[in-house]
Amino acid sequence: MGWKDIVAENGIAVIWVPKEYTKSGSFIAKCPEFPNGAIIICVLLDEDEIEFVALHEIGHLVTGKSLAKVNALLKHLEHCKNEANANRFLLRKVAPRFVDENEYNKEWATPDRLCEFLGLRNTFENIQIAQEEINFAFWGDYD
C-alpha cells in the first residue's frame, strides 16, 4: 500500500508547501481543522523523497501521540518515542522493496544502507529498527 493509499484510508489531509518552507515535511496533529491530522510536504522534493517524508509524517499520525497531551517534563522523551515510531513505520513500508531491489542479498541490504537510502541518521535505534524490518522482509514475518 502506497503513502497516498494510507492517506486516503486514514482521512489524512496533505498540504503542499512552497520552496520557502525550511523542512522536508512535518505533521499537524488531529485538531478541529484536521480531524484526522495532516501532513505537510515541500513541493521541491523528488518522488522518492516525497514518499519517504510522507511515510515518516504519516507514521507520526498513526502511531504517535500529540505532544500537547504530554506532561512538559516528558515532551522530549515522548518526542523521541514518536520519532522512533514514525521511523519504524517508514522502515516497515520501504524495507521489503529495499530487500527485493537488492535481490535479497544480505551482504548488501544492510540496516546502514537502508538508513542512508532513506536519509535517516545512523543512530543505534534507527539501525536496530532497520535490522528488524530487514529481517521481517527477508523472512516474511509481517502480520
From TrEMBL:
This is Uncharacterized protein.
